[in-house]
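Hi everyone,

Forwarding the result from last night's run.
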Amino acid sequence: MEYVYVVAAAAIAVVGSGFALLVLRKGKNAEARKSQRAHADAQERDPPVDLGETYEFGVHEFTTHHSGESIAVGKVEGFVLFVEDVPASVQVGDVIEATVLSWNDGRTSADATFERER
């Protein structure tokens, strides 16, 4: 009789694990589709910034450029700006001003140069 309970418990565990994996996988796929849609929408819209203009925005994070330089990442109306020449005193969350220098591939982001901290 105990054998039946062990087999039933094992079967429930296997089915439950499979169901949990399906739910997790579906959630990740939904997130991936949402991200792909946002990227496609960004490629279709005109950038909300102009070359040569200076914008004020918060620093979201820092990343390392392939040259080894630390680059600040910020957004203007959801549009990503990669800012170079940022002083070491600037931290995530600080508000800075930067001038847009050039577009990146697909005009979905741009490179900018640091002007001042606000």
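The chain is about 35% helix and 35% strand.

Cheers,
N.
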